[in-house]
Amino acid sequence: MLEMKNVCTSYGRIPMLRDLNLKIDEGEVVCVLGSNGAGKSTVLKTIMGLVQPDEGDIYFKGKKISSFPPHQIIPLGMAMVQAESFFPKMNVETNLQMGAYFEKDQKVINERLEEVCDIFPRLKERLSQLAGTLSGGERAMLAIARGLISHPDLLLMDEPSLGLAPLLVQQTYEAIEKINEERKITILLVEQNANKALAVSNRGYIIQKGEIIHEDSSEALMESKIVQQSYLEVG
Q1: Beta carbons within 10 angstroms of residue 124's beta carbon
Q2: Which of 140, 150, 165, 188 has an alpha carbon 20 to 30 Å from 76's alpha carbon atom?
Q3: Is residue 174 part of a domain?
Q4: CATH number for 211
Q5: 99 located within any domain
């Protein structure tokens, strides 16, 4: 579904990703693990067109998207979820409808609204509430639901456990499993919380200073010394 080939990305003169190769097949959950500043979020931003690669190619469902801006990538079937990715002064319902911006049929939007409320019943109780007044857990639900309402084939998730209490982290990851298994949505997940990420993933990559230094099945990564020594104490 997605492939990055020898991708190099920089912020100004500062190199961020170096000769990065990554792929994800339809139906998989793939995680990218790394410490703060390793380049995890830059991987997602580069895929999504928020940052243009200096070198290399990115393919989504066989189509080269390396030079595409976000508004051309989203309609192809991709969405990105980040913490606090909502409009705090709009109510929950409006935020969700904004997630379906490229869908013009209001009937379809309403059906999708019901779908995401089935996944996150708490949001259904909060539709008229301003998003900025939600609890931390409810904000995490809203961010994910805004990504889902566009009906993506591939969902990019940027540290969904960040700043959440342990119980809310558990609930968030249960939702991620449900989205993948029941909705058949492919997921690329970047995380510092290796325990949770590997538990729901098929495969994983470890990124360090913008380079992929190791990749394997999630089970093998759980057993590897590099993950046990560097990441499994996180979360």
Answers
A1: 14
A2: 140
A3: no
A4: 3.40.50.300
A5: no
Q: How many CB atoms neighbour CB 91 within 10 A?
A: 17
Domain count, the chain: 1
Provide the token pair at 104.
Answer: 């013009």
CA distances from 108 to 97, 102, 111, 194 (A): 11, 11, 5, 37
Each residue's pLDDT, cut to its tens digit, for the chain (235 residues) gives 999 999 999 998 899 999 999 999 999 999 999 888 889 999 999 999 999 999 999 999 999 999 999 999 999 999 999 877 789 999 999 999 988 888 888 999 999 999 999 888 899 999 999 999 998 888 988 999 999 999 999 999 998 888 788 888 888 899 899 999 988 999 999 988 888 899 999 999 999 999 999 999 999 998 887 777 766 544 3
For residue 179, tell me if it sits in a domain: no
Asked whether the beta carbons of 137 and 170 are under 8 A apart, the reply is: no
| Both tokens assigned to 38 | 């390793």
- For residue 35, is it within any domain? yes
* Number of Cβ atoms within 10 Å of the Cβ of 133: 12
Which residue reads 């259904």 in tokens?
Answer: 124
